[in-house]
Design goal:
It contains 2 helices and 15 strands. The protein has about 230 residues and is mainly beta. The longest helix is centred in the first third of the chain and has 9 residues. The protein is globular and about 55 Å long.
């Protein structure tokens, strides 16, 4: 399934989107990012074409992800909402990285932006990579907050949804994760995991599961599930 992560994540299968957290300079940002990915050189090359200098000057106050799963067990889209606070004058963007392990599948579309607009974009379908700057309305002053929203919509052929996780390179005050299943197809149980932390079985209610993590990170947080045999 699609795994949207906040920094850098090694994922053995499926796809991932990353809200990227770079260090203080573009080149050092790419170097740090690349060492966390299975093929770091390709990630470095893509990230070097966008401006990632402000990430460590943005505090993650809140992150909310909603994963929508269709009646055919397919992963339809990921909706994300971030609340960020500037710790210095000047931050004016947030970077999204999308990576698909299946390079023969179309890259998802970035839609439904709120509080931001697309900036520079790097598209490398042969590597399953999409990198997009999300530009704020204006540069933030120290202490100001901003709310941004975006949706990643998968294109056919849609992947089967079996998991979702976000990995945090930097801490977040509050992280909320929802998995919403179509009423026609709901797994009997989901496993919520956190590293650091333990796995917990969660039974879907009203066709959904959710988890909340406070003052979390660095680490990873997510759900995984198995579908019963048809």
């Amino acid at each position: 399934g699609l795994r949207q992560l906040e920094a850098v994540l090694e994922v053995p299968a499926g796809s991932l989107a990353t809200l990227l957290g770079p260090p203080r300079a573009r080149r050092s940002a790419a170097a740090e990012i690349g060492r966390f990915w299975p093929d770091g050189r390709r990630i470095d090359a893509a990230v070097s074409d966008v401006d990632t200098r402000w990430d460590e000057r943005l505090t993650r106050l809140s992150q909310h992800d909603v994963v929508l799963v269709g009646a055919g067990r397919e992963e339809l889209e990921i909706r994300s909402r971030q609340v960020l606070r500037a710790e210095a004058d000047g931050p004016d963007r947030w970077v999204v990285i999308l990576h698909l392990d299946e390079h023969d599948r179309p890259l998802p579309e970035l839609r439904s932006l709120r509080g931001c607009r697309p900036g520079r974009t790097v598209v490398k379908p042969e590597d399953g990579l999409l990198v997009v700057e999300l530009l704020f309305a204006r540069p933030l002053e120290r202490g100001e907050t901003v709310i941004t929203e975006h949706t990643l919509v998968n294109r056919a052929p849609l992947p089967v949804a079996t998991n979702y996780e976000r990995k945090f390179r930097l801490p977040v005050r509050e992280y909320v994760l929802e998995i919403r299943f179509s009423p026609e197809t709901v797994p009997p149980v989901c496993r919520r995991f956190a590293e650091p932390g333990e796995e917990t079985d969660v039974v879907p209610e009203s066709g959904a599961v959710h988890g909340v993590a406070l003052n979390f990170g660095p680490g990873r947080y997510g759900f995984e599930w198995d579908w019963p045999a048809s």
